[in-house]
């Protein structure tokens, strides 16, 4: 049975999945709503399933808050992920970090910024969205290297591969909290 744990960011959930070892490898039930809801997961209707593949260690993206709930779980490899609450309220700016393997998942409520760094080559992760992705959807970004957040990236900055837009996004103190 999977387990669901609330974090210090309201609505951000850490999920431990059952990873069943087999002679051929392993099997997991990535998402089974009824079992997760029994453990405290919200009733969410996901409408889109995406997969991402990265070839190298140190591929880094984020910190992006988008207009939908997300459920993220690696299928292969390991990810470091940093989540920042960008919603209006007492936990605005709160940071949580996780290392995710195929036996884990996280649920990010709308308004939480997500970033990741691959820790193994050939990492694959899936993410379910509660709304259809569109390029013009609202997105709030925070600088990957904001000293106020001080994300403890698992690799030195010169070993991270990131896009310039993520490294030049505004610092947290210049971000308007998201009203939901």
**Average pLDDT for all residues:** 96
Cα distance spanning the termini: 32 Å
Residues in helices, as a percent range: under 10%
Helical run tally: 2
What is the string of SSEs from the N terminus onward? Answer: EEEEHEEEEEEEEEH
What would you report as the Rg, rounded to the nearest angstrom?
A: 16 Å
Uncertain residue ranges: none
Largest sheet: 6 strands, antiparallel
Shape category: globular
Quaternary status:
single chain
E-strand count:
13
Q: Could you tell me the strand content as a percent range?
A: 35-45%
Q: Give the strand order of the largest sheet, numbering strands 1, 2, ... along the chain.
A: 1-2-10-7-12-5
Which class do the helix and strand fractions yield? mainly beta
List the helices and strands and how they pair.
Elements: E1 3-6, E2 13-16, E3 19-22, E4 25-28, H1 33-38, E5 48-54, E6 60-66, E7 70-76, E8 79-85, E9 95-100, E10 104-108, E11 112-118, E12 123-129, E13 139-141, H2 164-167
Describe the protein.
The N and C termini lie far apart (32 Å). It is built from two helices and 13 strands, in the order E-E-E-E-H-E-E-E-E-E-E-E-E-E-H. Strands 1-2-10-7-12-5 form a six-stranded antiparallel beta sheet, with no helix packed on it. It has a five-stranded antiparallel beta sheet with strand order 9-8-11-6-13, with no helix packed on it. Helices cover 6% and strands 40% of the residues. A hairpin with a 6-residue loop joins strand 1 and strand 2 (13-16). With 180 residues, it is mainly beta. The mean pLDDT is 96. The radius of gyration is 16 Å and the shape is globular.
